[in-house]
Write a structure and sequence with these properties.
alpha+beta; two-stranded antiparallel sheet; 71 residues
C-alpha cells in the first residue's frame, strides 16, 4: 500500500508506517507526523487488508521470538 497521509487526505507516492500502541492503530506518514487514521483503519479492516497485515506481523514476531530462544 503506497499512500501519502496528510491532514486526512490520501495521496499516491508514499509508504506510511503502521504503529500499534495501546490497542490503537496509528499511522506515521513520511514526514514523521503522528496521525490517527481511524477511518482508513476501518476501511482496511472491512476490506480484510488489515487482517492480512496483522497476520504477517504476528508470524514475524513468532519467528523472531523463536530465533531468540534458539540463540
Amino acid at each position: 500500500m503506497k499512500k501519502d497521509i496528510y491532514l486526512g487526505e490520501i495521496k499516491e507516492g508514499a509508504t506510511p508506517t503502521v504503529i500499534y500502541s495501546n490497542n490503537e492503530v496509528n499511522i506515521i506518514d513520511r514526514s514523521g507526523k503522528f496521525e490517527e487514521m481511524t477511518a482508513l483503519v476501518k476501511k482496511l479492516r472491512a476490506s480484510g487488508e488489515l487482517d492480512i497485515f496483522e497476520e504477517r506481523e504476528r508470524k514475524r514476531k513468532e519467528e523472531y521470538e523463536k530465533a531468540q530462544k534458539e540463540s
